[in-house]
Amino acid sequence: MSLPAYRAADPARTYYAFNGAWAFLSALTFTLSMVYYVKEVGLSPLQMVLVGTTLEVACFLFEVPTGIVADLYSRRLSIIIGFGLIGAGFLLQGLVPTFLAVLAAQVLWGIGYTFTSGADQAWITDEIGEDQVSRVFVREQQLNLSCTIVGTVTAGTLGLVSLPLPMTLSGAGMVLLALALLVFMREENFHPTPKAERENFRQMVDTFKHGLAVARQRPVVRTLVLMSLISGLSSEAFDRLWSVKILTDFSFPELFGTSDPAVWFTVLALAGTFLSLGASLVVNKVSPERVNALHPKGLLALFGALQVAGIVGFALAGHLWLALAAMWLNQVAGTIAYPVESAWLNRNVESRSRATVISMVAQSNAIGQVVGGPPLGALAGRTSLRTALVVSGLILTPIPLLYLRLRPARTVVPVETV
C-alpha cells in the first residue's frame, strides 16, 4: 500500500511539476544519446538497433502488468517506483559505457517508464475530475515543451565538457524526483481494493479482463488501440533512420564556427521544440473549442494527415532545409495531437481500469515498433533509406480515415465482465 504524502500539494501543480521535471531530465539524456552511443560506447549499427529493440521488448512485457498495479494498488506508488527505475537506468548508461550496460539500462528505464505510463494520466484524472483534465493535459504539454528547450540547451552545454555528464546528472535528478514525489504527491480520490478482497493474482486478472472488455467494446478506445499499433509499425524505423539520412545525405554548414553533428543535433532538437511549443500555443489560442472538444475526430484526422505528409516529404526531400521542414511538420502535428487524444481516451474509460487501458494503448504501440522496426530496417539495407522512410510514412495513411469513421457516443456505459 502506498505511503501517504508528508506535505500534500495541489494535484494539478504536482502534475505540472513532475512532468516538467521529466521533460527537462529526459532532454538531458536523449539530446546527445545517439552521439554518446557512437563516440563513447562505440556501438555498431546492429547494436544500435538491438538497443532500441531491447527497450521496446521491456515496454511490451511490462506495460500492462504495471498498469494493473496502478489500478489495483496505487497510481502514486507506481509513478514513484517508475521514476526511481528510470533514474537508475540513466545512471547506469552514463557511468558504464559498454554495450551490455546500455542494454541493461534500457531494461531498467523501460520497466520504469511502464510504471509511469498510464498511471500519471489516470492519477490526475481521478484527482481533478474528467471535466477538467483536457485543459490540464494541454497546459502540461506546453510546459513540457518549455522544459525540453531548457534541458536541450543544458545537455548541449554539458556535452561540450563530457558526453556522459548530461545523462549521469539526469539519472541522479530522476532519483531525487522520485523522493520529492514521496514527500509531496497526494492521492485522495483513488480507492484501492481492500487487502482482504484483493486475492492478488485473481484480482489482477479481473482488472485486466475489465480493461480488455473496455478496449473491445468502446469504439473510441478500440480505434485508439488500433491506431497506436499502426503508429508503432511506422515510428520505430523513422525514429532510428531519420538521423542516418541527415548525416549521410547532407552536409551541415558551419554554425558558431563548427559543423560538428553534436552541435547541429542540439540545434535541431531546439528548433523542433520551439516550433511545437509555438504551434501548440497558436492552435489553443485560435481554436480552443476544437482542442477541448468531447469528440475531436476532425482535428486529430488533420494532424494524422500532416504526419503522413511530413514523413513522406522528409523521405523524398533532396535538400537539407526541405527535409528539416518536413521532419518538423511531422513533429509539430504529433505534439499538438497527443494531449487531445489522451484527454479523449481518458473520457472514455472508467477509473477502475483507466491505467490498465492506457497501458494497453501504449503496449500496442510497443508491439508495432517491435514488429515493424526490423523489416523496415532490412528494407533500408536492401533498397535505400528513402524507400524505407516512404513506406514508414505510408503505413500511417489509415489513421486519418479511422479518426473520421468514429462517431460520438452519447454516454460512457459501464462495461461488465464475466
How would you characterize this protein structure?
The chain is an all-alpha fold. The protein is built from 18 helices and no strands. Helix 3 runs antiparallel to helix 16. It is a multi-pass membrane protein.
Short summary of the structure?
The chain is built from 18 helices and no strands. With 418 residues, it is mostly helical. The protein is globular, with a radius of gyration of 21 Å.
- Sheet having the most strands: none
Tell me what the CATH architecture is: Up-down Bundle
Intertermini distance? 28 Å
Which sequence of SSEs, written as H and E, runs from N to C?
HHHHHHHHHHHHHHHHHH
Q: In CATH, what is the homologous superfamily?
A: MFS general substrate transporter like domains
Percent of residues in β-strands: under 5%
